[in-house]
Amino acid sequence: MASKLTLTGEVIKGFWKENPVLTLLLGMCPTLAVTSSAYNGIGMGLATGFVLLGSNTLIASLKSVVPRSVRIPVYVVVIATFVTIVDMLLKAYLLELSQGLGLFVPLIVVNCIILGRAEAFASKNTIFRSVLDALGMTVGFTLALFVLGAIREVAGAGTLTLFQMGETEIKFNLLGSNYIGILVMILPPGAFLTLAFMLAAKNAITQRLEKKSN
Amino acid sequence: MPETVKMIVVMVVVTGLAGLGLAAVNDRTSDLIAQNARQTTLKSINTVLPETGKPDACKTFPSGFDNAPDQDTVCIDGMTVFRGRRGSEVTGIAVQAIGEKAYAGTMTVLVGLRMSDGMLTGIKVLKHAETPGLGTGMTKCEFQRQMVGFTPDGQNWTVAKDGGDIDQLSGATITSRSLLNAVTKAQTIWKSERDRLLSAPAMKEGEVCHGQ
Predict the structure, then answer these.
(1) Residues A14, A85: Cα–Cα separation, whole Å
(2) Which residues 78-107 on chain B approach chain A with CB closer than 8 angstroms?
């Protein structure tokens, strides 16, 4: 099982082999909803990552104390606490991002990745391994959301936003100011389309790699 | 320890600690969050109440008031009206009006009017759920240019499709109508509630204007 992996393997698996978005297909709701810009994707990924790191660590350290019958309520309390903390921190320090993500920050509570990792991994593994797992999953999730957001933003608006806070923003106008934009890419169907292409590409690459190794 | 007792103890301790943690973070952030909210409001008021003179929707001007309009509000017909003053004289009002029958629900618009002649000095859409790329064109200054700088009697405040002077956004006539609905509401307040705008005492802190 998973515990046979090396410590680096524990991190790396989240990038590709067990990527939460591209392989496990978890957390589809925030994936599709907030990725209308690259910055939103990064922000959502990191906010989820903070919650995941906190909940994985805490749940792994509590696993011997919590009776099996109340484990799910305990997980939910732990996760909800971290989500509320993230929500307050974003509102206080990163207002633009908090407005961009809107309702989807409180909704991290019900993101399957977090409860999934708590139940499937952190409750059975050491604290250290759970931290590594959370880090890998965070990178994988953030990367997938970033790529999805970047493709949609470039095609839909011709820009690529990497950071935004008050007057400071890192934004590239890649396709010039006359670019009208493919509207559908910013709308929900664009998210489904782009994700479908990403999944297909991921599967194609994986198959090719497997053929080579055989 | 029997299983039931253990369950109760664990749940109580976990929720208790969670509560403590949240209280600690809330303590650190609540002031900043309130400050952020206030800054956002003031910034919006700033954009719709520029210095006197003919404003241009596509340019930014220094603010046309020297008070704190977010603390000098009156509630008229369920709409919050922010008053911008120079000294003690009310120079402009920013009406937080609801645009009815938007493409998706309603929209909340901050409409700035000059007190002396009712000239529209700025529009800022605060909340909406219009279609990106079509309805959201209403936030662009090129569209708002047809309204900013005009007095209530200066033009016919309906969309061209209904015989008015405002060219609707192509593909978003309903959105354009809704925005004009909010603007017209603000103009009505300016026309008919002059006395209250000038002399009604400011709402107390924490008082809510209903109907928003």
Answers:
(1) 25
(2) none
State the best of A35, A62, A77 to mutate against chain B, taking most chain B CBs within 10 Å: A77
Across the interface, whether the CB atoms of A95 and B14 are under 8 A apart is answered no
A73 CB within 8 Å of a chain B CB: yes
CB atoms within 10 A of CB A36: 23
The two three-digit tokens of residue A178, written as one number: 């006359």
Contacts of B212 (CB under 8 A, 6+ apart): B78, B79, B80, B96, B98, B108
ipTM of the modeled complex: 0.79
Question: Cα separation of B41 and A211, whole Å?
Answer: 59
A146 within 8 A of A22, measured Cβ to Cβ: no
Q: What is the pLDDT of residue B68?
A: 82
Q: Which residue of B has its CA nearest to A80?
A: B18
The answer to whether the beta carbons of residues A195 and A32 sit under 8 Å apart is yes
A37 in contact with B, Cβ within 8 Å: no
Q: Collapsing DSSP states into helix, strand and coil, what is residue B164?
A: coil
CA distance B175 to B103: 6
Local structure of residue A163 (DSSP, 8 states): E
Q: To the nearest whole angstrom, how far is the Cα of B182 from the nearest Cα of chain A?
A: 23
The DSSP element (H or E) to which A75 belongs, if any, is helix A71-93
What's the confidence (pLDDT) of residue B52?
67
- Give the residue among B45, B100, B82 at the shortest CA–CA distance from B209: B82
Report the SS3 class of residue A19: coil
pLDDT digits 0-9 by tens, B16-36: 999 999 999 999 999 999 898
Shortest Cα–Cα distance, A146 to chain B (Å): 20
Tell me how many degrees the CA angle A109-A30-A205 measures, rounded to the nearest 5.
125
How far is the alpha carbon of A74 from chain B, nearest alpha carbon, in Å? 7
Size of interface A-B (CB pairs under 8 A): 61
pLDDT in tens, B48-99: 888 766 677 777 777 777 888 888 888 888 888 888 888 888 888 888 888 8
> In chain B, what are the domain boundaries?
1-203
